[in-house]
Amino acid sequence: MPTAPKLIAGIILGLLAVLVAYIYQLDYPTVSFDNSFYMISGLIGFGVGWYTLGQNSYFGGWNSVVAGVRSVVVLALVASILFGLYHVYIGMTEHAYHKPMQVPITWIRKSIAYFSSSLRVDIWGVMIVFGALAGRLTGIANWHWR
Length: 146
Known about the structure:
Structural class: mainly alpha
Order of helices and strands: HHHHH
Shape: elongated
Number of helices: 5
Helix content: over 70%
Protein backbone atom coordinates (compact mmCIF):
# COMPACT_ATOMS: atom_id res chain seq x y z
CA MET A 1 0.00 0.00 0.00
CA PRO A 2 1.35 3.45 -0.82
CA THR A 3 2.40 5.74 1.96
CA ALA A 4 0.44 8.80 0.76
CA PRO A 5 -2.99 7.59 1.99
CA LYS A 6 -1.46 6.64 5.34
CA LEU A 7 0.15 10.06 5.65
CA ILE A 8 -3.06 11.88 4.72
CA ALA A 9 -5.08 9.77 7.17
CA GLY A 10 -2.54 10.41 9.92
CA ILE A 11 -2.46 14.16 9.36
CA ILE A 12 -6.24 14.53 9.19
CA LEU A 13 -6.90 12.41 12.27
CA GLY A 14 -4.06 14.14 14.12
CA LEU A 15 -5.65 17.52 13.43
CA LEU A 16 -9.02 16.10 14.42
CA ALA A 17 -7.59 14.87 17.72
CA VAL A 18 -6.17 18.31 18.48
CA LEU A 19 -9.53 19.92 17.64
CA VAL A 20 -11.39 17.47 19.86
CA ALA A 21 -8.87 18.07 22.67
CA TYR A 22 -9.58 21.80 22.38
CA ILE A 23 -13.35 21.23 22.47
CA TYR A 24 -12.87 18.93 25.47
CA GLN A 25 -10.81 21.61 27.20
CA LEU A 26 -13.56 24.21 26.72
CA ASP A 27 -15.83 22.23 29.04
CA TYR A 28 -13.28 22.45 31.87
CA PRO A 29 -12.31 26.15 32.16
CA THR A 30 -10.91 25.83 35.68
CA VAL A 31 -8.47 23.05 34.78
CA SER A 32 -5.27 24.12 33.07
CA PHE A 33 -4.23 22.04 30.08
CA ASP A 34 -0.67 22.52 28.91
CA ASN A 35 0.55 22.20 25.34
CA SER A 36 1.65 18.60 25.87
CA PHE A 37 -2.04 17.59 26.12
CA TYR A 38 -2.62 18.84 22.58
CA MET A 39 0.65 17.40 21.28
CA ILE A 40 -0.04 13.96 22.75
CA SER A 41 -3.58 14.04 21.38
CA GLY A 42 -2.25 14.90 17.93
CA LEU A 43 0.32 12.10 18.06
CA ILE A 44 -2.32 9.59 19.11
CA GLY A 45 -4.53 10.78 16.25
CA PHE A 46 -1.67 10.52 13.77
CA GLY A 47 -0.84 6.99 14.87
CA VAL A 48 -4.43 5.81 14.77
CA GLY A 49 -4.93 7.41 11.36
CA TRP A 50 -1.78 5.81 10.00
CA TYR A 51 -2.55 2.30 11.24
CA THR A 52 -6.35 2.05 11.04
CA LEU A 53 -7.57 4.36 8.30
CA GLY A 54 -4.44 4.46 6.16
CA GLN A 55 -4.34 0.69 5.76
CA ASN A 56 -8.07 0.22 5.06
CA SER A 57 -9.01 3.32 3.10
CA TYR A 58 -10.65 1.57 0.13
CA PHE A 59 -11.11 3.79 -2.94
CA GLY A 60 -13.25 6.79 -1.95
CA GLY A 61 -16.77 5.36 -1.80
CA TRP A 62 -19.03 4.62 1.13
CA ASN A 63 -16.59 2.02 2.37
CA SER A 64 -14.06 4.82 2.86
CA VAL A 65 -16.58 6.90 4.81
CA VAL A 66 -17.40 3.95 7.07
CA ALA A 67 -13.68 3.27 7.54
CA GLY A 68 -13.22 6.91 8.62
CA VAL A 69 -16.02 6.70 11.17
CA ARG A 70 -14.62 3.40 12.44
CA SER A 71 -11.20 5.00 12.82
CA VAL A 72 -12.69 7.81 14.88
CA VAL A 73 -14.22 5.29 17.29
CA VAL A 74 -10.85 3.55 17.54
CA LEU A 75 -9.23 6.95 18.14
CA ALA A 76 -11.56 7.65 21.06
CA LEU A 77 -10.93 4.24 22.61
CA VAL A 78 -7.14 4.37 22.18
CA ALA A 79 -6.94 7.93 23.52
CA SER A 80 -9.01 6.97 26.57
CA ILE A 81 -6.83 3.95 27.29
CA LEU A 82 -3.57 5.89 26.86
CA PHE A 83 -4.70 8.87 28.96
CA GLY A 84 -5.85 6.41 31.64
CA LEU A 85 -2.40 4.81 31.51
CA TYR A 86 -0.79 8.25 31.82
CA HIS A 87 -2.91 8.96 34.90
CA VAL A 88 -1.80 5.66 36.45
CA TYR A 89 1.83 6.45 35.62
CA ILE A 90 1.56 9.80 37.42
CA GLY A 91 0.07 8.00 40.41
CA MET A 92 2.89 5.46 40.38
CA THR A 93 5.54 8.19 40.41
CA GLU A 94 3.83 9.71 43.45
CA HIS A 95 3.59 6.31 45.22
CA ALA A 96 -0.22 6.46 45.31
CA TYR A 97 -0.75 2.71 44.98
CA HIS A 98 -0.01 0.35 47.86
CA LYS A 99 -1.58 -2.88 46.60
CA PRO A 100 -0.67 -4.64 43.36
CA MET A 101 -4.21 -4.74 41.96
CA GLN A 102 -4.80 -1.02 42.45
CA VAL A 103 -2.85 -0.18 39.29
CA PRO A 104 -4.86 -2.17 36.71
CA ILE A 105 -8.16 -1.39 38.43
CA THR A 106 -7.37 2.33 38.47
CA TRP A 107 -6.25 2.13 34.83
CA ILE A 108 -9.56 0.57 33.79
CA ARG A 109 -11.59 3.02 35.87
CA LYS A 110 -9.74 6.07 34.54
CA SER A 111 -9.99 4.84 30.96
CA ILE A 112 -13.74 4.37 31.32
CA ALA A 113 -14.02 7.79 32.98
CA TYR A 114 -12.12 9.48 30.13
CA PHE A 115 -14.23 7.74 27.51
CA SER A 116 -17.51 8.52 29.27
CA SER A 117 -16.54 12.17 29.67
CA SER A 118 -16.11 12.36 25.90
CA LEU A 119 -19.65 11.15 25.25
CA ARG A 120 -21.03 14.55 24.35
CA VAL A 121 -22.90 15.66 21.27
CA ASP A 122 -20.45 18.40 20.32
CA ILE A 123 -17.42 16.10 20.54
CA TRP A 124 -18.95 13.12 18.75
CA GLY A 125 -20.62 15.32 16.15
CA VAL A 126 -17.27 16.81 15.18
CA MET A 127 -15.59 13.40 15.32
CA ILE A 128 -18.12 11.64 13.10
CA VAL A 129 -18.29 14.43 10.49
CA PHE A 130 -14.52 14.83 10.27
CA GLY A 131 -14.00 11.07 10.45
CA ALA A 132 -16.27 10.58 7.44
CA LEU A 133 -14.45 13.38 5.64
CA ALA A 134 -11.07 11.87 6.55
CA GLY A 135 -12.19 8.49 5.24
CA ARG A 136 -13.39 9.98 1.97
CA LEU A 137 -10.21 12.02 1.42
CA THR A 138 -8.00 9.08 2.32
CA GLY A 139 -9.93 6.86 -0.07
CA ILE A 140 -9.50 9.39 -2.88
CA ALA A 141 -5.77 9.56 -2.11
CA ASN A 142 -5.61 5.78 -2.17
CA TRP A 143 -7.33 5.74 -5.58
CA HIS A 144 -4.92 8.33 -7.01
CA TRP A 145 -1.71 6.86 -5.58
CA ARG A 146 -2.30 3.14 -6.03
